[in-house]
Amino acid sequence: MIYDIGVIGLGVMGTNIAKNMSRKGFKVVTYDFFDDVRKNRMNELKQENVDIAASLESFVNDLKKPKNILMLVKAGEVTDQTIEKVAPLLERGDTLIDGGNEQYENTRRRNIELTEKGINYIGMGVSGGEEGALNGPSLMPGGQKKAYENVRNIFEKIAAKADDGKPCVTYIGNDGSGHYVKMIHNGIEYADMELIAESYFFMKHALKMSNDEMSDVFSEWNNGELNSYLIEITAEILKFRDEEGNYVLDLILDKAGQKGTGKWTGIEGLKLGIPLSLITDSVFVRCLSSLIDERALISEAYPSEMGTVEADKEAVLEDLKNALYISKLMCYSQGFRLLKEASDIYDWNLQLGEISMIWRKGCIIRAHFLEKINQAYTNDPGLTNLILDDFFKEIVTENQQSLRNIASSAIKNEIPMPAFLSAVSYFDSMKQKRVSSNMVQAQRDYFGAHTYERVDKDGAFHTDWF
To answer: Rounded distance, CA 102 to CA 79, Å?
Structure first.
């Protein structure tokens, strides 16, 4: 049999995407380098009309030309090892596709190396987890445009479909752009999750709400402008009980893991000089959460009694909803600002509106207001910051006081809400024509003769301060 596409890596993601492709009518052959994995997946995939090749050679040889192979293996060294084994079996014009969570620099390097051999290389972000892989993920492919066109039909068929029927996949740009966009997606995801977690924490401690009450609030929010996958699952998590009737959330250790993409996003922001305060603070909160013993010692040294907000509960919840909405907007504005900068520096010509549209379904940060982001870039393709768009400007102007109210209550009542406070600081700093950095530059010139620029004349200047 001649197959339309091959999938290497039979973990959950590879297995589910292979099933997805088969269910959409494509002939799929798979392979895994471990004998026991191939054996364990044999019956499962056979029921889905997906074949498992007995050898790497037969796997490659049975693919129709030009050959297209999707790799879903561990990022980094394992991906390099896979390429080393597969590339010698390919011909000019064939394409390797990396669907893992890879650093974009590695993807750029591999694209250059394989292009020199006449082999196309696509780095593709895949969002949606194992459920998305099976039923429709959001896909972010970057690499040679001609290579994407060879697999476009497959990807459009297996991708999630938005409410308007459009597939949640689009060609992103050259070399590492696809994995870069996925990295930013994940960075935004970190901040989005942290903001929601802080909202839950505020309800629990400042308003003394029960899990069921909080679940009802998040469910209500999900019916409005905050409609999103993460809000939806938060409502479900809050009310979920185990077989003994205990709320599972209350039994979970307050230690959040991470796989690195949030950290990569923060590093990239530092590299390009774009502030990503909500994202980086959200990464650091996860780091702080892992310091359980140290937090216990400090809590004993500095006892904290989180206070209760003495105000109309419904009014406070309305403030919290508005504060969350604005903070999420600040988070997205930071992420898209970095995408714009990267597009210019790396010459990717990223279509920011299209990127927002492929995140509407299938991915973790899918949300209703992504269509508003697309409209913002449609209205002004050169938009530098989302909060300058007329629609979002109106939202921020009308509701910024709610964010300040929640931030003030959090500080007054000793309730940690670093992401919300970061949103306030970012907004207040960005809307100042002049900030405090003239003092910093003066200090640098004082102790290091680093010079400074002036507001009244061009050039570099130094003062003999002593």
So the answer is: 9
Q: Has 165 been labeled as part of a binding site?
A: no
Give the position of tokens 């082999």: 119
Q: What is the mean pLDDT of residues 295-324?
A: 93
Q: Which one of 19, 67, 102, 182 is the catalytic residue?
A: 182
The answer to whether residue 189 is catalytic is yes
H/E stretch holding 56: helix 56-61
CA distance 122 to 104: 11
Q: Cα separations (Å) of 395 from 326, 329, 398, 402?
A: 8, 10, 5, 11
Claim to verify: residue 373 and residue 444 sit in the same structural domain: no
Ligand-binding site membership of 190 (annotated): yes
Give me the long-range contacts of 264-267 (CB less than 8 A, separation at least 24): 264/103, 264/183, 264/187, 265/183, 265/184, 265/186, 265/187, 265/190, 265/335, 265/338, 266/187
Spacing of C-alpha 425 from chain mean position: 22
Are 210 and 240 within one domain? Answer: yes
Is 385 annotated as a binding-site member?
no
Q: What is the pTM of this model?
A: 0.94
189, 194, 198, 268: the active-site residue: 189
Query: Which residue range is the domain that position 446 belongs to?
Result: 434-466
Domain at 414, CATH number: 1.10.1040.10
What is the tens place of the pLDDT at every residue in 362-391? Answer: 988 888 889 999 999 999 999 999 999 999
Residue 74 is encoded by which pair of tokens? Answer: 């561990």
450 marked as part of a ligand binding site: yes
Could you report the per-residue pLDDT of 387-412, keeping only the tens digit for each? 999 999 999 999 999 999 999 999 99
- Determine whether 130 is an active site residue: no
Tell me what the mean pLDDT of segment 311-319 comes to: 94
